[in-house]
Specification:
about 55 residues; alpha/beta; about 30% helix; three-stranded parallel sheet
Length: about 55
Amino acid sequence: MPLVGFATVNFYDEINNPQHRGMFKFFDRAFIGKPLNADFIDNLSKLPHFINDNL
């Protein structure tokens, strides 16, 4: 089954808007370059671990 992800280094100021939260929850996993404590998006540094765990 394919996984769909989203990676970005932008959306810093918009990340708390409900529309963007809904967009990120659409993906199996979303990653952003800025360190955040959020349940719907991970830090970009966790992308390689996610790929290795799911290949």
